[in-house]
Amino acid sequence: MGSRFDEHERAQWSGRAIAYRDSLAALCAGPASALLDAAGLPPAVAGSGAAALSAGVAGSGSGAAGLSPGAAGVGSGAAVLDVGTGTGTVAELAVARGASVVAVDAEPSMVALARRRVPGLDARVAVLPDLPFADASFDAAVANFVLNHVGDPLAALREIRRVVRPGGRLAVTVWPHPPPVAQGLWHEIFAAAGAVRPPDLPRLEAADDFPRTVDGLCGLLRLSGLADVHGAEVAWTHDTDAEAWWNGPAAGIGATGAVLSAQDGPTRQRVRAHFDRLTAPFARGGRLALPTRAVLAHGRVTSPSPA
């Protein structure tokens, strides 16, 4: 039985895979290549379509969290679990690097979309903190922004760690707090429009939360039982169409979408007016260039999970 936070997240994402793909999925793809580097996957073969795919993901800091591609000894054909696959961006890149990938997501519409995106992908519905795999089933696991969407991040990490073999690596990202420019713009927009956060919008229990910083995320990985933990911030500029940046929250996606959906008509109109005004300084050739960043951390499994 999930927490109220978990139940809200499931409802918030239900049936929204296409809306997410067409709006905010490109933002979440930003650190994907660095995430796979941190998990120890080798790079795609230079000059191949796979390498071009990997290079096309906008991120910075290959090996930024203290690990170069392949440094963990995860070779071609390694079994990799992509937790919270969403539209399958990370899974597709991992396949391009030669991995044998299993992908899971709590939202069935995301799983269906990932299967269509990556032919032959083993994609399944699974809800943390319960994964349908035996202990030590994978050589590595990645979770891109998954911990932002679970009610008990430590329990989620411990479950992911359970299914990674000793010697394997686990790499995760979260959005930082205070938020970067891209996400912080929405706080400014809502404040200028007089939009109010719904009082029933759930937050994590204080005992389950952690600082959304490099130190905070690394500390959580250590609490989960991982060793050789390293972390860093990955920064990039998110290039997007202005309507795509609006349409994600307008479709009710994420915490920003929950706030926007709760506003009455006049307030929503003010939000749109301030959105246009406050994003204008970031307009470049008809698109928006929004600075953003993520916190990336990874660690090594050194022993089987406790029974």
UniProtKB/TrEMBL annotation:
InterPro entries reported in the protein's UniProt record: Methyltransf_11 (IPR013216), Methyltransf_Superfamily (IPR050508), SAM-dependent_MTases_sf (IPR029063)
Q: Which residues form a coiled coil?
A: none
Methyltransferase type domain location is 81-171
Top-level taxon: Bacteria
What is the protein name given in its UniProt record? Answer: Methyltransferase type 11 domain-containing protein
Source organism of this protein record? Asanoa siamensis
Q: What is the lineage of its organism?
A: Bacteria, Bacillati, Actinomycetota, Actinomycetes, Micromonosporales
